[in-house]
Amino acid sequence: MSRIKQCFENLEKSGKKALIPYITAGDPSPDFTVTMMNSLVNAGADVIEIGMPFSDPMADGPVIQLACERSLAAGTNIKKVLQIITEFRQTNTQTPVVLMGYLNPIEFFGYQAFANAAKNAGVDGVLLVDLTPEEATDVVECFRENEIDLIYLLSPTTTPERAKKICDLATGYVYYVSVKGVTGSAELDVNSVKNHVDSLRAITSLPIGVGFGIRDAKTAAAVSKCADGVIVGSVLVNAIAENKDRQKEYIADALEAILLPMRNEMDA
Question: What architecture is domain 3-267?
Fold first, then answer.
């Protein structure tokens, strides 16, 4: 059983929901990322999404775009991202790690080579924002043979027919984008999220994670009432940006200070 599947099954048995933070690998320096990942686990993260920096992150707002720029300027590339996951796995073999990014760097690396290397590093899932189901046939096999879950995005504008097609292809969990637009771009309508999540439950048995627009403990708790996972990104990445010139331990503490109240409010 994959780490992701085991994680969600364990949470369901305990009556809890997954807290899934996102940070960009290598921001502000590759040497900082493992320390920050450990801080997220300490604050109650169940799954960690790690962004692979890309020069044109079209689904992301300015906060994560700037994080990608800082990461690339610090010398982060795909090989460095995988080295970071390998280092994290030296002390943590339980927390699922999902790599999130875009097709171009993976195509350059080679799908099969990337899938093999990701497996060896200890990656559990991959979310490629611009990989459409129509173009995923060969790619899916590379990841499936390496037992890596391929996670897909669904949005408020996804038609029921297309949602069913995506859910049939996805494994691990599906990521419901709660707002129209890019990351960090809009206020969250929890009632609308609940309606869409309820509709998705009719077509998939996969866990449903909800992201975009979750900025505080109150919103995280509200979303956790209808979703299986709460995905938190821009607020964490913004905290990294605000403290980018400080020591990595200081940044790690800042991330814990944001995430821990979300964990506590969700569990309450």
Answer: Alpha-Beta Barrel (3.20)
Please compute the mean of the pLDDT values over residues 49-74 and round it to a whole number. 90
β-strands 174-177, 153-154: how paired? parallel
Q: Which of 39, 57, 66, 60 is nearest to 238 (CA)?
A: 66
Instruction: Name every residue whose Cβ is closer than 8 Å to that of residue 134 and which is 6 or more positions away in sequence.
Output: none
Residues in the chain: 268
150 forms beta bridges with 126
- 216 classed as catalytic: no
Known catalytic membership, residue 60? yes
Q: Which residue has the tokens 């995905």?
A: 231
CA 265 – CA 268 distance, rounded (Å): 5
Q: Under 8 Å CB-to-CB from 238, ≥6 apart: which residues? A: 63, 184
Please tell me whether residue 232 adopts helix, strand or coil conformation.
strand
pTM of the predicted protein model: 0.95
DSSP string, 17-28: -EEEEEEETTSS
Q: Which spans in the chain are helix H?
A: 3-14, 33-42, 62-73, 78-89, 103-109, 111-121, 137-144, 160-169, 190-201, 217-224, 234-242, 248-267
Contact 233, 65 (CB under 8 A): no
Catalytic residue among 46, 60, 124, 149: 60
- 57 pLDDT higher than 80: no
Unique residue bearing structure tokens 């079209």: 58
Q: What is the pLDDT, as a whole number, of residue 191?
A: 86
Task: Return the ∠ at Cα 55 (arms to 238 and 131), rounded to 5°.
Answer: 100
Residue 190 in this model has a pLDDT that exceeds 90: no
Catalytic one of 27, 46, 49, 149: 49
